[in-house]
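Predict fold of Lysine N-acyltransferase MbtK; 184 aa.
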Amino acid sequence: MSRLSTTTAVGALPLRPVDPLTDAVLLHGWLTHPKSAFWMMQDARLVDVERAYMELAADEHQQAHLGLHDGVPAFLTERYDPAHRELVGLYEPEPGDVGMHFLVAPTDRPVHGFTRAVITTVMTELFADPATRRVVVEPDVTNTAVHALNAAVGFVPEREIQKPEKKALLSFCTREQFAKAVSA
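Predicted 3D structure, encoded as tokens:
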């Protein structure tokens, strides 16, 4: 991902690469928060988060970015190559498939429409790469809130899959499905 800034109804949402050491305290707070239970890092120690994001940063098949709102970190997004990470052996990847995760920072002052603006920003950034033909996600089957968000930006569920850590809903969104969903 580049340092794209998408302007949304909630303002500009620029992205910057995660710095594993500098951002670890912030990410640790987000990932261990009860609202982030689907990230399965509730018991992670600070060193675990540092290590996880250092490994991710060193991996040519993954990238992590922080999204800013009014200059303040407000969300996390991860991009991965599903032919090499997360979904290896669980489906047949096609050329141009890109995997994605996102997490909106827990807050006591939610902004109406913010999460939808975040996923729209993340998808816009992924499709800014002309090589991206389809975005792949694999949220927990019980995460109905994210299923609704995914549907709102054009994702179509394909099937349930069993990952080592969870039962997931494998879903896909093409460039055309995304464009149609966000223009509606």
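Residues 167 and 181 are 26 Å apart (CA to CA).
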